[in-house]
Structures are given as C-alpha cells and as structure tokens.
Design goal:
The protein is built from 15 helices and 25 strands. It is of the alpha+beta class.
Length: 559
C-alpha cells in the first residue's frame, strides 16, 4: 500500500493512489511547493520527476525548536492562509501550545519476516502444522517517483496473535510456550495538539498539529549527532528542502526535512565518507547509500512521521554542512543507480573500517541470509589466507597484533587523507577499569556480578568479532550476546568494534583493569569504507569495488 506521506495534513487511510505530497514537492521548486497543501488533492503528476521524495527526522522529543531561514520563505499550515513570502530574517521559534496524547505499548511474538511471499507461505504452513495460531501482517510501502514505481519495500511478518502489555509477560509467554520467536514492541500513538510559531519580531502564528516551512535553506539549532558514540556532539546545521515541525505521539515536537532523495544523498555521502577520497570510492558510497535508502524506505521508523533518522541508525546526514564538489559529482554521476540481486534492490550495510575481514550478515542481525553479504578477507581473491580461521582464539590474537596486508591497513597506503582519517581504528586499544565496569554492568543490566574477575570470549564470528561473552564476577555471571550489545555494555561511548582480545592487568586472580586490543570500527558487514578508498587509490573501478564487497550484486539504474 502507498502511504499518503504520513503528514498530519494528510491523515487519510493508506490507498493505491500516488503519494500526492511527495509528488508535489518533486514536481517543482520552492514557489511551487508553497501551494502544496491547497492544490495537491487535484494535482496530476507528470510522467517523470526528479527523484523520489524522502522524509528525514532531524530532531525528536523537543519542547521547542529554533529555526533560522536563509532567505524568504513560505509558511504552510493545515488551515488555508494567504500565500505571501515571509521576509523577517533571524531565529524563528516553534513551541507546543497544547497537546493531547495517549499511547499503547503492546508486545508481540514475531516468528518470521520476509519480503519473499514464497518464504513466508512455507513458514506459515509449517507453523500452522504445529497447531499454532498465526497472524500475518505487512509493513512497508511502494516507493514512487511520479507514476514510476521505484521499489517495493513491503515486508510480510508472522506473529502470534496474543498481545502482552509488558516485556516481562511477553518473554515469560515465549519461554512457557517454548516458541522460537522474537519479542518485539508495537507502540501506537494518538495525538492532537496546537503549536505556536513566533517570529524574531514577536509576531505569533498558531496552527493545528504541524507547520511546514518552504524556502531555499533553513538552519536548525542544536542538533545532536552521534548520540551514544565517541563523536557525540551538538551543533547547528543548514538544510535544503522543506522543514516540517509537528506534534509527535508523545506531545513533543519532531522536526522533519522533506526533500528529493538525490538531494538527501548530497548530505549523506560527505558525512559518511571523506570528500578527499578518490572519486571511485565516493561513487561507491553514493550507490551504496542510495541503495540503503531505497531498501529501507518506510522500514526503519514505522512509529514515526519520517522515513529515516539523520544519524548512524539509518545513515549519517548533515544537510549542507559538508557538501563538496567532489561528493556532489559522485552523487550526480551515479544518479538513480542502486545495487540489485535477482532483479530486486538488495541490502547494503557498510562500516568505517572492517579491520581486514568483513562480516557475515547473519552474525550481526537476525533474519534471512543474504548471499552477497558474506564475511571475507579484505584482500584480492588470489591473496586470501587459506589456513587462518579468525573464529578461533588461537588465531585472533596473532591477527590483531601482527601487521597484515589488507586493503584497509592504512599504514600501507600513500594517501595521507586516508591514513589520517582512520589510523586509530584499524588497530586500537582501550583500557577498562574494573570498578567503573562493575558499576556500568550493574546500572545497564540490573545484575550485580560483584568484583569482576574475567571477561571470557565464548563465540566469535568469521571476522573474529565477538558475538557472545561472559562476564565473570565473584558473586554472579552474566552472558552477553550480539556484537553491538557487547560494544555498548563495555564502554559508555561504544567500543569501535567487538573484534578484540582481552588482557587482564594487575593480579591475574583479581585484576584491576582489562586492556582490550581490537581491530576495525563498526559491524564490518558489506563495504569497508577505508578499504574502498584504498582500492580506488590503487586504480579499482566503481564496479570492481562494489563487486568485492557485495559479490553477486549488480549495478542497476532505477531512474
């Protein structure tokens, strides 16, 4: 089904009609978009438009928002008002006047999800043969550019039909019924409200539910980037496209940037990859980022009023702050290009630096296997070491502590910009004080292990990343699974990766600290950005780079 842009202005049921708000924004420039809310109902889309329209969540859960227009702009509201440009420059502020909201949090048991109907049908038949009552649901949308169908992101899911009002109750039911299911949260909001827009000279406009600002550029104040990571910061950022401020499901403010996908990519590519990298690497990043966006359209934030957030959970997006001629060229020269597998847009995760070996997707995320996301050494095919098994403890320490000849080893390349960008991440060390770690474990998990005696590796993936560890104390033991959970639990700023070995410091029986020696930055699945940069420097083409990191996938132009 096709959403009506999920705007407060268009709270219609899902239908097979084209998303009118997205079409209208794509069809023209600022002056045209100024009349969106009064004319879209009868608008007939042209046969082709620039690119699909996407919605990016910039801020959430805000009491007030400060916005500085960079030129004349229009104010669009649900209630028709005179169409005249606003010329008062300075900081405009949006705040909530009143709001009513209620929410329902229910937990469900998810058995399976897939974009493949045949797979879901087989799983449904198998589950029902076991006497289980199963409910089939669907999420996602069809993405259009004008009347052209770009991609189908709909996912079918199989649920146990019973709802639970607490996580504990759902988990207890799963264990009691001995079901191989995942407990997932289904949060539903209902909200009404009024917000106030105050100009720099004190003029006030009140509107129901949402306000959209349409102009050349807008500067948004105090955006948090990299939340929970070592680079977390708060900064002002400038955005092209339109800015929508709405009352969200919690009665607070959400800020959304509405713009064409190709314009969005101009702010993603330089935020995800240094613009000093060789052009073929930048083009690879553009294709991968575009594919990622199309594949995940309307999937990552199904309980929000936007398609993607602006941070690493989706893709890092900084608006106009880092745009450059080099990255703009990479986006333009790959316009509409995505990676496909068997004719369908495929999953394209990527990470900063794999550390010398990419990761198997199933080791990081649950779900169906993907044949193009296999773990492999970051070297040409004829140089793959056949006897090295990084899942074995006897091999991983040597791998981490000995220089290795791989694409992403920055000490082996001549480009200073590449080396300076990632020298601290190919191989790294972090020291964890036991007392601090004991307190962190207690605070984050509620488990008091007492005095921490050992961090024991239990399972490693093909890249050497830890996917299960055991924290052993003198009072209790705690097992932790999933590489990201391990990284977040052991460090307040999140470890660079879970590919590390542990060396105790002090008394071996009662250490005072643990020294972690690690490799890489990120989950390691898909393209290694530093590896791609080095490959491009060495003369590899866009096609060769993507074939190395996504074997079997092919480049295809959607529009």
């Amino acid at each position: 089904m096709v959403s009506m842009n999920r705007l407060p202005f268009f709270r219609q049921p899902r239908s097979q009609t084209i998303d009118r708000a997205r079409v209208c924004v794509a069809a023209g420039a600022v002056a045209w978009s100024a009349i969106i809310f009064s004319s879209c109902a009868g608008y007939r889309a042209p046969q082709t438009v620039a690119s699909p329209i996407v919605r990016i969540g910039l801020l959430q859960n805000q009491d007030s928002v400060a916005i500085e227009p960079q030129g004349d702009f229009f104010i669009l509201t649900q209630t028709p008002r005179p169409r005249k440009p606003e010329k008062v420059m300075g900081v405009w502020r949006v705040s909530v006047v009143e709001s009513y909201t209620d929410s329902l949090q229910i937990y469900r048991l998810l058995f399976a999800e897939s974009r493949n109907s045949d797979v879901i049908n087989r799983q449904l038949e198998e589950l029902r043969s076991q006497g289980l009552a199963i409910e089939r649901l669907e999420k996602g949308e069809i993405l259009y550019a004008g009347r052209q169908r770009i991609a189908d992101t709909r996912v079918q899911q199989l649920y146990h039909p019973t709802f639970y009002t607490s996580l504990a109750a759902a988990e207890e039911a799963r264990q009691r019924l001995n079901l191989k299911a995942k407990v997932v949260l289904d949060q539903r909001f209902r909200t009404k409200g009024k917000l106030r827009l105050t100009s720099p000279d004190g003029a006030v406009l009140e509107a129901e539910q949402a306000i959209r600002l349409s102009g050349p550029f807008f500067r948004i104040k105090k955006i948090t980037a990299g939340a929970g990571y070592h680079w977390q910061r708060v900064e002002d950022r400038t955005f092209r496209g339109e800015i929508e401020v709405m009352i969200d499901g919690r009665g607070k403010l959400t800020v959304v940037n509405v713009l064409p996908l190709e314009e969005y990519l101009r702010g993603v590519v330089p935020q995800e990859m240094s613009s000093t990298f060789a052009l073929e690497a930048l083009k690879g990043q553009a294709v991968v980022a575009r594919t990622f966006a199309v594949y995940h359209f309307s999937q990552r934030h199904t309980d929000a009023e936007f398609d993607y957030c602006a941070d690493v959970h989706c893709q890092a997006y900084s608006g106009m702050e880092k745009e450059s001629p080099e990255t703009d060229r990479a986006v333009a020269e790959t316009r509409g290009m995505v990676l496909t597998l068997d004719g369908k847009v495929c999953l394209t995760p990527f990470s900063a630096i794999c550390g010398g070996h990419t990761e198997e997707v199933s080791a990081i995320w649950q779900g169906e296997p993907h044949s193009h996301l296999i773990g492999r050494f970051d070297v040409p095919e004829d140089r793959v070491p056949r006897t090295l098994d990084l899942s074995q403890e006897s091999h991983i320490a040597q791998w981490i502590t000995t220089p290795v000849q791989v694409f992403c080893n920055v000490d082996l390349v001549s480009d200073k910009s590449v080396a300076e960008y990632s020298r601290n991440y190919f191989r790294w060390q972090e020291r964890l004080e036991c007392k601090e770690l004991e307190n962190r474990i207690r605070h984050e998990t509620g488990v008091d292990i007492g005095t921490l005696l050992e961090i024991r590796p239990l399972r490693r993936s093909v890249s050497g990343r830890l996917i299960e560890i055991e924290l052993i104390g003198n009072q209790n033991r705690l097992r932790v699974e999933n590489e990201l959970k391990i990284r977040r639990l052991l460090s307040e700023k999140t470890l660079y990766s879970s590919c590390f070995v542990v060396e105790p410091e002090g008394n071996a029986q009662a250490p005072t600290a643990f020294l972690l020696k690690g490799a890489g930055w990120g989950h390691g699945v898909g393209m290694c950005q530093i590896g791609a940069a080095v490959m491009a420097e060495q003369g590899y083409t866009l096609k060769q780079i993507l074939a190395h990191y996504y074997p079997g996938a092919r480049i295809q132009a959607l529009y």
